[in-house]
């Protein structure tokens, strides 16, 4: 006779890892939402459009290197599962070295050539447009992206530190770091954007100009400062845990030692490149819809709201990426399969909850982002569609995390390419002519991803079997 236990030891292990990770990741979009709130108070839709475009450009470049921390977590988890601390230290140092090199290059690109980077997203019709003022979208976006670019290296360093702790199955310490640094961001936001109530005065020096506020780009400056503090905290923590050695941070690793990162990194880089194509295409579609910036602002707000749920799913993904290899190293495929099956179940439950919460919360939170009625009206449809995407995201992120934990990087890249192909095809169709259509295209991408990772888990992966084990029974 079957005995159903709602919460057992395995569930507790999953939840104790996932919940702090979710809270940690949730802090960032919440702070970004505050950034959007303050920029929205400038009452210029072009400022919101510029912020959306600049952030899209930053993360497009950032994610070209962010595959390193993504791969680091399962590699560290596997090494710790085997009690091989030297290998764990080596993986962390290698990832930090490469993150610093790539981050430095990308930072120089963003600071030195912001207009060229922004042209990926901002069409000429919007870049040079003005709405009731002298500033164009490009005037807002260029300094914003430059300030944001200063945080590239610290952001990658912090992401690697977080990945190392996730590999240790310690998600509480990163949560504390995130809370402290993002609280700093919240304090700096109004100071950097509005100054001390003297934003209308033209100061003669850079110091006084900063004192009087940087306008919309002040949000980016506040974020970069908080990321710098976060990276310094992680450096100290990793030194204390002896997962970092000063000499290895500045010494290029050998090709042999880099092989595990390279093998997974190339596939993950291909995956991220295809994702960049999809999301740049979607952002550019939104930016091209009208020269007033209303559609672009509405798209940015929609994605901001949607990202609040996505980071919860990323917590599930990170949990799978850490627990699956750790359980496999200790208990073999059977133990890893039990963990993966249960994470699929929890991911599906989370998707249902997030879809319902976002749907019912939209009337309350949408007005918070902009005082402009035309922007609020444009957000309603796309934001409603995005809430339903969470229904399938539960499978998507559980499956992706399991594949990361198993090292199935090539298969994950192929699945992502299939999903991106579907999304780009939808964007090229009449669907791409409206904001609702852009979000439907995103939904198609996630649906293909969800189906593909589920089939991979059940029929193709090393953990394959018929169906999921949702509860213990005998």
Defining traits:
mainly alpha, 474 residues, 79% helix, 17 helices
Helices, by number, come to: 17
End-to-end distance: 6 Å
Kindly state the percentage of residues in helix: over 70%
Strand content: under 5%
Helix/strand order, N-terminal first: HHHHHHHHHHHHHHHHH
Question: Which radius of gyration do the C-alpha atoms yield?
Answer: 22 Å
Number of DSSP-assigned strands: 0
Mean pLDDT: 82
**Unreliable spans:** 1-5, 198-204, 468-474
The geometry reads as globular
Structural class: mainly alpha
Largest sheet: none
Give a brief outline of the structure:
By secondary structure, the chain is mostly helical. It has 17 helices and no strands.
Describe the model.
With 474 residues, the chain is mainly alpha-helical. 79% of the residues lie in helices and 0% in strands. It is built from 17 helices and no strands. Helix 3 packs across helix 13 (255-288) and helix 13 packs across helix 14. The chain is globular. Mean pLDDT is 82; it is low at 1-5, 198-204 and 468-474.
